[in-house]
Inverse folding.
């Protein structure tokens, strides 16, 4: 029995995805190729790499234009066989050649970027010679240019001359007083390709010539006067020559096109295939999709996955696993709770990946390739459950059981529904056991409590449920793995207005065992939520601690580099000073020697030695770093957290973050964006009056600047120091203008800007709290700051 993938793919709505893909295609053949895509387990990795490379090229250089591609294969084969193409056909060939040339030129602009698409790009052959030949010769589908050939240009020049002579004869006639009274109107017109004049019927004998037409009323005859016959005859002859020459030109152009037919057809096919690849990349942009990792082990791990056919603003991204520590997932919960959506999401994203399509899920998601994706999904939300419905599902499931193997993904919706609950539950459990024995990976939805218990008791089988908001009676489509679902029937009924007495009676009718099971599930759900919150808080704290550790290491390294650089600069300056002083003293000594030689009045050798010794002493003491000592300084009072101090040896202001610790005592201070420990002896306390004066001056300057308030600031592309200056300016402007929230756009990149911004926010006096952006706000590419 052959695997009918289309049947199962349609149940998972892959056809709708392919329709979306076809809409992104730039030509009809590419759209048709998109609609005919099939999952290819063996080529999935290559197809995804092609899409990923196209995605990257589009991000950097935009998309190449495939708009002029038209299927001209039949026309080219006819030209190759010696046929004559019409002007419309030749214009389509020129359009294809123009598009092929544009694709080649676009790829040349991307030179230096290597992709797996390069071979296809390189095999496309542009033909500017034939393109120019056609474009210069043919102006439109019905007009050929005069310069299509020298002979055509000469013929048309003669046609214009002969036409002018014929019109000249007739113009003299219609302006002649002798003939005007015989004319219906003083105009020259054309009938059967010849110039004629309209003559009143009763005067037809007054103007000798040939009658070519009569008006519908019979009151006017169109006569070609004898004086214009010869010129008209000449025009007719020339028009016949023109037609023959145009046919000759078309034959010549058709022959040229036929000579290049094979190359053009091959290049066109390559361009169409590239158009499909770039359509996939364009669809990925539209879906905000990413490339999943692929494996052949049946392992599926989806992070923040979304069903691509549900509005991304209405669906909550969900995490889904299968084939990790369990091979079977049993999804339970109420109707309209999102179970079927979760099932379809797994199957549809798997099929999309095997078609080379990126998936709407977070980075790091993983999918497996399967030789078969087998699905039994129908409209099980209907109340018309009958034997025929059950029979139809059983027929599908029987076929699935026969086909399933260890390379199959099996998706079963409402397993065992449509029959007696006891028998249906038993049958469902038996079907799962049979499929598991064949090694298939299985995801199934059900209402049966027996299957919840089966999943709890069976190794390799895991429960899952879809989160449902009882308050709004709407699903969130978020899948909770490890948590059996509750029907929520009682809560939903109360929410819809059911009499509480009726609901209470229903609760009494439920068996004690079922009530206990539901209570256990409820307790599990509450515990899950609490653990989930605690885990999220622990994750956040761990990330903050790791971020702080990295920032501290970077800060220490930066302070050390700055200190080393300052010392090196100081020593360089001192060396320059010493060299300058040495030069001056040498010049002086030389001058004194010269005086001694000339006047026999010089200093003694002992005096000169003392001068040299003084110079060496100057060299030893000229280092300004070692020179800058202030051992007599004593702090006027013990330091407090928040004091402004001066780091004496590098002459930089800082703020005290932590009181002195250790022996010798060191103080944790913040200088700019850097935090570092500095020996207490190296700190000088700045007077409070100076601090307040500085604060008043800065505040006054900010107030006078009247900075316009903005709700976001973009610091991408700046250094950390530049970015923090921009952020401070934006915060000051927002505070002065009463803006409560500011969005800082720092991008994802390497994370340096993000860490610098968030470290700065921790101690900023105007910041109340901050967080990373959520989905739709920019995620980790932005920081949302709430101001005091």
């Amino acid at each position: 029995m052959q695997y009918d993938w289309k049947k199962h793919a349609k149940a998972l709505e892959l056809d709708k995805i392919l329709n979306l893909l076809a809409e992104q295609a730039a030509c009809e053949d590419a759209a048709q190729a998109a609609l005919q895509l099939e999952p290819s387990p063996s080529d999935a990795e290559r197809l995804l790499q092609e899409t990923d490379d196209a995605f990257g090229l589009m991000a950097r250089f935009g998309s190449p234009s495939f708009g002029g591609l038209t299927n001209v294969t039949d026309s080219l084969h006819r030209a190759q066989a010696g046929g004559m193409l019409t002007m419309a056909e030749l214009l389509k060939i020129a359009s294809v050649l123009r598009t092929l040339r544009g694709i080649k030129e676009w790829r040349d602009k991307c030179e230096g970027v290597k992709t797996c698409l390069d071979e296809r790009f390189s095999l496309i052959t542009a033909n500017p010679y034939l393109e120019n030949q056609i474009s210069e010769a043919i102006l439109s589908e019905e007009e050929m240019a005069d310069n299509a050939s020298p002979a055509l240009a000469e013929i048309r020049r003669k046609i214009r001359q002969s036409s002018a002579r014929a019109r000249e004869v007739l113009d003299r006639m219609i302006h002649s007083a002798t003939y005007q009274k015989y004319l219906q109107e003083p105009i020259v017109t054309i009938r059967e390709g010849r110039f004629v004049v309209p003559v009143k019927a009763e005067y037809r004998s007054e103007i000798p010539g040939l009658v070519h037409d009569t008006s519908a009323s019979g009151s006017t005859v169109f006569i070609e006067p004898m004086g214009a016959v010869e010129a008209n005859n000449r025009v007719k002859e020339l028009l016949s020559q023109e037609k023959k020459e145009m046919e000759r030109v078309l034959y010549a152009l058709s022959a040229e096109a036929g000579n290049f037919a094979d190359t053009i057809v091959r290049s066109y096919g390559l361009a169409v295939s590239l158009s499909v690849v770039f359509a996939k990349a364009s669809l990925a942009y539209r879906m905000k999709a990413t490339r999943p990792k692929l494996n052949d082990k049946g392992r599926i791990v989806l992070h923040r996955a979304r069903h691509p056919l549900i509005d991304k603003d209405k669906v909550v991204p969900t995490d889904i696993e299968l084939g990790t520590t369990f091979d079977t997932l049993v999804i339970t919960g109420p109707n309209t709770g999102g179970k079927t959506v979760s099932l379809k999401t797994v199957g549809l994203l798997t099929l999309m990946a095997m078609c080379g399509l990126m998936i709407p899920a977070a980075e790091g998601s993983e999918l497996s390739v399967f030789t078969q994706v087998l699905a039994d999904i129908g409209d099980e939300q209907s109340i018309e459950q009958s034997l025929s419905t059950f029979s139809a599902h059983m027929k599908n499931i029987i076929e699935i059981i026969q086909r399933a193997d260890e390379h199959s993904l099996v998706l079963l919706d409402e397993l065992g529904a449509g029959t007696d609950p006891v028998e249906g539950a038993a049958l469902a459990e038996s079907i799962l056991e049979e499929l598991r024995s064949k090694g298939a990976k299985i995801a199934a939805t059900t209402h049966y409590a027996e299957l919840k218990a089966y999943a709890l008791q069976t190794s390799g089988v895991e429960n899952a449920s879809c989160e449902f908001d009882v308050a709004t009676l709407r699903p969130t489509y978020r899948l909770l793995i490890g948590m059996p679902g509750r029907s929520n029937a009682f809560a939903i009924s109360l929410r819809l207005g059911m009499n509480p007495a009726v609901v209470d009676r229903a609760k009494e009718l439920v068996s004690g065992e079922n009530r206990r099971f539901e209570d256990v599930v409820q307790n599990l759900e509450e515990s899950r939520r609490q653990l989930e919150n605690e885990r999220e808080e622990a994750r956040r704290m761990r990330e903050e601690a790791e971020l702080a550790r990295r920032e501290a290491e970077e800060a220490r390294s930066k302070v050390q580099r700055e200190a080393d650089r300052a010392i090196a600069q100081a020593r360089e300056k001192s060396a320059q000073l010493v060299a300058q002083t040495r030069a001056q003293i040498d010049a002086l000594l030389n001058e004194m020697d010269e005086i001694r030689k000339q006047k026999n009045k010089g200093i003694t050798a002992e005096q000169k030695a003392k001068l040299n010794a003084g110079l060496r002493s100057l060299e030893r003491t000229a280092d300004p770093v070692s020179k800058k000592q202030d051992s007599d300084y004593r702090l006027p009072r013990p330091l407090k957290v928040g004091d402004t101090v001066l780091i004496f040896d590098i002459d930089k202001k800082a703020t005290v973050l932590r009181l002195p610790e250790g022996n010798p005592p060191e103080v944790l201070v913040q200088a700019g964006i850097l935090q570092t420990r500095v020996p207490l002896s190296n700190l000088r306390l700045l007077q409070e009056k100076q601090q307040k004066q500085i604060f008043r001056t800065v505040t006054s300057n900010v107030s006078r600047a009247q900075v316009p308030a903005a709700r976001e600031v973009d610091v991408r592309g700046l250094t950390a120091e530049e970015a923090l200056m921009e952020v401070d300016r934006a915060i000051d402007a927002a505070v002065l203008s009463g803006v409560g929230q500011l969005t800082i756009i720092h991008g994802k990149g390497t994370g340096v800007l993000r860490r610098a911004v968030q470290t700065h926010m921790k101690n900023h006096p105007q910041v109340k709290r901050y967080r990373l952006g959520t989905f739709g706000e920019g995620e980790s590419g932005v920081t949302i700051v709430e101001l005091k």
In short: The two ends are 70 Å apart (CA to CA). The CA atoms of residues 610 and 726 lie 58 Å apart. The first helix runs from residue 5 to 11. The mean pLDDT is 81.
